[in-house]
Amino acid sequence: MSKDFSATRLDVHAFAQAAGLLQGQAPLSAFTRLAQDAQPHTGVEPEVRWEVEGELVEEAGGAGKVWLHVYAEVGLPMVCQRCLTMASIPLEVDRSFRFVDDEATAELEDDDSEEDVLALSREFNLLELIEDELLMEVPVVPRHDACPEPVTLQSSDTDFEEANTQKENPFDVLRSLDVGKSAD
Q1: Dihedral through CA 156, CA 161, CA 163, CA 166, nearest 10?
Q2: How far apart are CA 173 and CA 63, in angstroms?
Q3: Which regions of 141-183 does DSSP assign to beta strands (E)?
Q4: Is 55 exposed, middle or buried (0-12, 13-18, 19+ CB in 10 A)?
Q5: Is the pTM for the entire model greater than 0.90?
Q6: pLDDT per residue over 19-44, tens digit each?
């Protein structure tokens, strides 16, 4: 018997126990908070692709540990801060989350553990978790790995250029010192 699982109302324990697999894709606009970081795009809207696997890791004398393994990716349209042209900034998440019985336990264990710990729920919104994780991958300064056009640096401030040409070299003072004298 196969059970259908919902990405927006996921029974995490049942999903892990069934070694469930959910995958899908949705337009960027379905992830409203992430879409706010994107530049308006022309043409085809970027798709967020995701896949989640549930796992119940048995342990001796215990109920087992509930895990979700989450993978998601999208090319987020942003302005490259180096060349100021549009760039599709790749965002990718590949993380695992261990689930515990309640929020208090999750907070306590999350502080002491290297694992990402969340509280179990029968109506867990997986798509919100995916969006949260992708938001943490958004760069502060987006840029191409290699800009399509060479970036030329230039100053258009004539006052700045004049000031730099009139400024005396600070090392010219050293030339006037007699470096051949020794201290007595």
Answers
A1: -160
A2: 78
A3: none
A4: middle
A5: no
A6: 999 999 999 999 999 999 988 877 78
